[in-house]
Design a protein that fits this description.
By secondary structure, the chain is α/β, with parallel strands linked by helices. It has three domains: about 60 residues, Archaeosine Trna-guanine Transglycosylase, Chain: A, domain 4, CATH 2.30.130.10; about 110 residues, RNA methyltransferase domain (HRMD) like (Transcription Regulator spoIIAA, 2-Layer Sandwich), CATH 3.30.750; about 190 residues, Vaccinia Virus protein VP39 (Rossmann fold). It has eleven helices and 20 strands. It has a seven-stranded mixed beta sheet with strand order 16-15-14-17-18-20-19, with helices on both faces. A six-stranded mixed beta sheet has the order 2-6-5-4-1-3. The chain has a five-stranded mixed beta sheet with strand order 7-8-9-10-11. The longest helix has 18 residues. It is globular, with a radius of gyration of 22 Å. The structure holds S-adenosyl-L-homocysteine. The site of S-adenosyl-L-homocysteine (SAH) has 18 residues, from helix 7 and strand 15.
Length: about 400
Amino acid sequence: MQKRVLLKRGKEESLLRFHPWIFSGAIASIEGAPEEGDVVDVYTSDGNWIAAGHIQVGSIAVRVLTFVQEPIDKEFWKKRVAVAYNLRSSLGLTDREDHNIYRLIHGEGDNLPGLVVDVYGRTAVVQAHSVGMHCCRQVIAEAITEVLGSRVVSVYYKSETTLPYKAQSDNSTGYIIGGHLDDVPLEYGLKLPVDWINGQKTGLFIDQRENRALLEKYSKGRSVLNMFCYTGGFSLAALRGGAKLVHSVDSSAKATELTNKGVKDNFPDDNRHKAFAEDAFKFLDNMEEKYDLVILDPPAFAKHRDALKRALIGYRRLNEKALEKIEPGGILFTFSCSQVVTKEQFRMAVFTAAAQAKRSVRILYQLHQPADHPINIFHPEGEYLKGLVLYVE
Ligand code: SAH
């Protein structure tokens, strides 16, 4: 029997606007006893086929893979990977000597809800955020290596933190094609200490690439404080940009170790850098050094809508502390990667922080996620990273 989902009357409206999620409350009935992760066909209450996607237990019940009737087979995955690759290629992110890191697939932004693929040299790191993508991991890995040819020869699968418990339990983390390579991950000429096996996310926050490049331009002669440094990408950009001193802070000792390694790999015998494994709020309270370029790139303070209010207070407090202490003529790069916080709400939190700190602040840039993290216009929820560059008198 065909595995299918029948919608309640009128509940096809968002699908007619190509929104890729079907919430459980929109479903009238499910036929053919699909298992979690199966592909199901979706029908309107009038009995018309409208979409096909992966089914899952939870509030997002179906993640749509296609709005046209087509088989979800190897050719389907190859077609989607090719479209995604061609975009990155046209952005000038592929086939470079000095740069080999980019996001190949960004979930809904590449019409593949639940799938993230990051490329580091000739290795692709695949991360499933849905049971359906987890079930398809091998065919996806094959599609990637077939479409990219010699450009990607190893695929590492890493979803231990991104899947519901049931799917996680089958121990599938590891190389699913090829094995470990010695390629050095490069971001615009800088060697980045990426560790996809033990690191956070797929090993790097690729989404800050263009913002790190912007920071480099403003680093000359400045004392830089990189809060929430993780692998230290902003610190490396500042050092290359000619900063006179760079301090990196992260509560995780693993992160400060990686940052130190990155500094050593790129700037051996350079003594301008120091890393601190400390809580950011405490560091800001107790710091003695004066800084005139500060980066605040905290983890998402709100992962769900219920946490929004507290998150906004968190952003306000953090920015207030930094604005109180930054030197006159200083520059603050401040970010939020919480998807539920809008750019208006974030800007309001920073506005309040500036008012409380009684500093004169002007906005120089409004930043966002880079082009290899595209936003599907039909899925505005895909817009998550926002940042402000502020000039503080
Ligand atoms: N700016 C980084 C990415 C930051 S990710 C880059 O360009 O790659 C957020 C980091 O904040 C993580 O490494 C996490 O360990 C760290 N973190 C989380 N809570 C913290 C806290 N209270 N104080 C300091 N660091 C914290």
